[in-house]
């Protein structure tokens, strides 16, 4: 059955952000931790899972699919390199949902061969979060991707801001993922409220 994704997809880099923003009404959140020990990551996954369960939010664990399984999580996000090294059978056996990143047609073919529960396309606009070899995809690429993947939910990511939500959803994205426009906002709580309100109207 096709998954229905919340139109607002928050991505954070530690469990403290999950505790701070999920209670505001976030329903889909990714824990994307880099450069910490497995023990520290496992602890934060557990903390985030408990918080999400308490608030009816879906937690997606980035990269660390083994820890996600061990901590009883239900959703992982994998990039292409992560996917190449992952045991998809183990992920599915654990009953996990799977989201996969794509940046070009060959990556889309790879992603679709894993029967993902959503496909992410990025970077839609320039992003300051990480360096990537791909030029911004632009809005027409969102429309193209949605036509190619059909019913599978499409997540747009990269350089998204509150002002860009309408055009990105209108182009065909089912969900809009964000880091900087919320985590580096002077008032992250207020900005989260704005994202929730706008994606509820538009999504
Ligand atoms: C929703 C979503 N889309 C894309 C990514 C990027 O994943 P990946 O290419 O594996 O890069 P890292 O995030 O691991 O640096 C994502 N995390 N979430
Ligand atoms: C983590 C990530 N992955 C991308 C991809 O294109 O796969 S773009 C991106 C950065 C998203 O952060 P921001 O909202 O700050 O631009
Ligand atoms: Mg990754």
TrEMBL record:
Binds 1 Mg(2+) ion per subunit. Keywords: Magnesium, Metal-binding, Thiamine biosynthesis, Transferase. Pathway: Cofactor biosynthesis; thiamine diphosphate biosynthesis; thiamine phosphate from 4-amino-2-methyl-5-diphosphomethylpyrimidine and 4-methyl-5-(2-phosphoethyl)-thiazole: step 1/1. Pfam families: TMP-TENI. Signal peptide: none annotated. The keyword Transmembrane does not apply. 2-[(2R,5Z)-2-carboxy-4-methylthiazol-5(2H)-ylidene]ethyl phosphate binds at residues 159, 179-180. Its EC number is 2.5.1.3. 4-amino-2-methyl-5-(diphosphooxymethyl)pyrimidine binds at residues 30-34, 62, 101, 130. It is an enzyme of class 2 (transferase). One of its GO terms (molecular function) is magnesium ion binding. It comes from the Bacteria. CDD domains: TMP_TenI. It catalyses: 2-[(2R,5Z)-2-carboxy-4-methylthiazol-5(2H)-ylidene]ethyl phosphate + 4-amino-2-methyl-5-(diphosphooxymethyl)pyrimidine + 2 H(+) = thiamine phosphate + CO2 + diphosphate; 4-methyl-5-(2-phosphooxyethyl)-thiazole + 4-amino-2-methyl-5-(diphosphooxymethyl)pyrimidine + H(+) = thiamine phosphate + diphosphate; 2-(2-carboxy-4-methylthiazol-5-yl)ethyl phosphate + 4-amino-2-methyl-5-(diphosphooxymethyl)pyrimidine + 2 H(+) = thiamine phosphate + CO2 + diphosphate. Mg(2+) binds at residues 63, 82. Residues 14-182 form the Thiamine phosphate synthase/TenI domain. GO terms for cellular component: cytoplasm. HAMAP family: TMP_synthase (MF_00097). Condenses 4-methyl-5-(beta-hydroxyethyl)thiazole monophosphate (THZ-P) and 2-methyl-4-amino-5-hydroxymethyl pyrimidine pyrophosphate (HMP-PP) to form thiamine monophosphate (TMP). Belongs to the thiamine-phosphate synthase family. This is Thiamine-phosphate synthase. It comes from Microvirga tunisiensis.
